[in-house]
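New to this. Help decode both lines:
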Amino acid sequence: MKQKSLLLIALTLVLSLFLAACSGGTTTEPNNNNTNNTNEAPGNDGEDDAEATTGDPVAGGDLVLGSTGSPTMFHPLYSNDTASSEIEDFIFAGMLKTNPALDTELNLAQSWDQSDDGLEHTLKLKEGIKFHDGQPLTAEDVKFTLDIPLHEDYDGPRSGYFEKIASVEVVDELTVKVTLSEPDPKIYIALGYHIYPKHLLEDVAIADLGEYTDFSTKNPIGAGPFKFDKWEDGQYVRVVANDDYVDGRPYLDSLTYRIIPDADALMTALAAGDVHYYTVPSSDIETAKEWEAAGQLKIESGLGLSYSYLGYNLRNSLFEDVKVRQAITHALDRQLMVDTIMNGDGEVADVPASPLSWAYDEDVPRFEYDVEKAKTLLEEAGWTPGADGILEKDGKKFEFGLKTNQGNKVREDLAVVVQEQLTEVGIKVNPEIMEWSAFIADVNPPAWNFDAIILGWALSTDPDPSGIFHSKEIEEGLNFGAWSHPEADSIMDEANRTMDQDERAKLIQEVNKIIAEEQPYTFLYYANAHRAMPANLEGFTFHARLPFYDIEKWWLNPNN
C-alpha cells in the first residue's frame, strides 16, 4: 500500500456530518444497587472465567448504552442524526475508518493504492467478509453502494462527498477501482461509507430507497461487528455479536441502546446500574465524578469533535439582514452560558471548526457580548421599540420560535437563557422543546419548519465546511438555514480541488472568516466529552468523534 495513497491529511473520517444528539441532566444520588459497585460485569452471569486471571479478554455480557435521542432509521446514506449513525456503526462497516489520532486506516479494505495524478483509487477487500445473512461482501457491493449517491434519483444528504466520482469499476471479486473527474482531497470520506448488500437492495428503485423501511427500520443487514436484533421504537435497540465478523467476534454478547428522553431519568438509570455507558453532559459531570470516586464507574474525558450553535432559518425575513444576526450574537453572553450552564466545562466557539482541526484559526471576526452594540445594529437595520418594548419594523414585531430537543438539559437551559437575554434588546423568543425525532423532522428538508434552532454538529474530521454551508446543500443537504454566499461557495470549491494541505488550510480559514462575519449561526461553544462506563470495562479507547470506537474490542472483566 502506498503511503501517499492514504492521503494522510491528518484529519479524516469514514462518516460525514451528523447532527449531534448530546444529552444532559441534573444531579441525582447514586443507588446502592448499582451493579458497577460489584465485581459482577453488567449483563454478565458473574461466573469466574479462567482466562480472566491471565488478563486476556473474556467473552460475554450485555452492555446497556444510554441515549436521550431515538434513531430515525439505519440507513447510512440517508440518516443524519447521531442516534442513527451510532447504531449504524454497530451494524455496518466500510472500507476505511478513522483512528483516535484522526488518521485514516484500512478497515474492510486490505489495501488502497492511488495513481500519481490522484484520479484513480484501487481498493482491495479482505477475504472472507460476510454480510449478516451469510452472503459474501464483494466488490460488486462496493460498486453498488458508491453508485447510489451518484444516481440522479438519490435524494439523501450525502451527494456532495461523491460528486467527483466519474466511475466505479469492479476489477475482480475483491477489487474495485474508483476514477475521479478531478483530484479530491477528501475522497476518503466517500470511500469510507458503510457498504450496502447489493443482493437485498438492487431491485429497489433509487427514488424509493430512502423510504424502503423493510431494510432501514425492520431488518438492516450489514457486515459490521454486531447484528440487528430488535427495535422497540422510543425504548431501545438491541444488537447481538456477529460470530462471522471479519476481524473476529466481538467480546460482548450484545448491546442494548436504551432511549430515555428525559436526561434526569437517564442519570438516575446510570446511578442505578440500569444504564452502563453514557456520555455525561457538563451539567452533571461533577455528580458523575463523585460516583467515580466511590468506585461505581469510571469516566474517560477529552475535547469532543463538535460544536453547538444557535442557527437561523434565513428564509425568515427576520434574519435576512447580517446586522440583525450580528446583533443577536452581541446580545448573548456566551461566556456566561459556558460558565454557568456548563459549569465552565467548555469554551466559546466563533467558527464552524474544532480546535482539534489542522485548519482551525483563532484570527476571525468576533462579536463579543455588548448589549449596546446589539441595540445600535438593530436600529441600523430598521428595528425600533414598540409600545410594549418589543422591536418593530414595517408593522412586524421581532418575535420568533426557538426549537431544541428534549432530554438535552444544556440545550433546554440555553433556550431559556437566549430568551431572557434577547428580551434585553427587545426581541421576543418563544422556546419550544421537542422530542428528538419530531425535532429532526422539522429541521430536515423539505420541511425546514423552524425560525431558529439550538443544535450541534458532530463534525467530520475533515475541516471542509461545505457540507453544511455551501449553497448546493440547501435543497436536499445539511444547509438547513439556507445560507448562500457566492464568494464562499467559490472558495470552498477551490479548497476541495487542492491537494496541498497548507494551501487548503488557508482557503478553509478564509471561508470560516466569511462565515464568522456573516453569522448564519451564532456559534455557542465547544464541549468536552465525558464518557461514563463500568469500572470493569476493558478495551476502551477515547476517540474525539466516535463514542463507541472499536466497541468490538470492549470486554467486561469479572475479576475487577
